Input
Amino acid sequence: MWWRTELSLEKGASYLSGSPIAFPQGEHAAIFIGHSTVLIHLDEQNFLTDPFYLKRLYPLQRHLPPGVPFQNLPPLHFILISHGHLDHMDLKTLSLFPRNLPIILPEKLERYLIELGFTDVRSLSWGERTIIGSLMVQALPVKHSPGRSLYETRSIPQSYFVQGTKTIFFGGDSGLTEEFREIGANYSIDLAFLPIGNYQPTPFRRVHMSPEDALEALEMLGARRMVPIHWGAFRLSLEPPEEPPRRFRQLLQEKKINPKAILWQPGEKIPI
Output
């Protein structure tokens, strides 16, 4: 493999060994792959969020390898894409998946997937929902910059609420917003995935959350548990890649809110 980074896994199960992933029947669990990519197993269905498997994001070298090698992913039932930015909707990674795999994404981005040959592309706007198997997926608000590039600025980023036997909130990428309080008042969330990176310089916090912001968002959402995403893989802002998880761990110790919020590493599996 191209990567040589060594990972320190504090708890949970690691899948860096290369063995195929199999979830026991009845298990509900999530495995952090890296950046905003999470493998979720819920009600015997597998889905990925914002899949990104490249070793570079244009000029940026990846700092942490994917926690699950691509070839060891289980069969998927669908993919969630939170928004069109290149580190969240990577067409090279998406081109590796079967073309009949359902893709759920914001409106105005459908053509990219249709041009790749995907046949089940489901675009949603805030409040809209779709059903896949026994799971309901609903698009909800976030506070983040729109579009895919300077030339395509129409699509609006979104989060997702996934409801089955357990419930998931996938935050994608967002700044702290009062919309989270409304979501918390209307949805019961078992596990929230919230971003904690790319917050420096300070103006970036309009559309990204710091570790402190993410913990405040957790309280607003009223989620039973939370794990951070959107950290460590790429240096997209001025803080060092290792700073967000270090600050998050320190905040957990200071606030003494474990196990409500848990810091995980790429390759770790956490029960839902």
